[in-house]
Amino acid sequence: RSCSFTGFSTVQSRKLVKSLSRSSVRSRMSLKPPKAYNSLQKGALVWDPQPLQVKKIFEALKKGLNEYLEAHQAELDYLSGRHKDTRRNSRLAFYYDLDKQIRSVERYIRKLEFHISKVEELYEAYCIQCRLRDGATNMKQAFSLSPSTKASRESLVELYRNVQECTEDMCFIEGALEVHLGEFHVKMKGLVGFARLCPGDQYEVFVRLGRQKWRLKGKIETDDSQTWDEEEKIFIPNLHEKFEIKVTELRGLATILVGVVTCDSISFFTTKPQAILVDITELGTIKLRLEVLW
Question: Which CATH architecture has domain 184-293?
Answer without folding.
Answer: Sandwich (2.60)
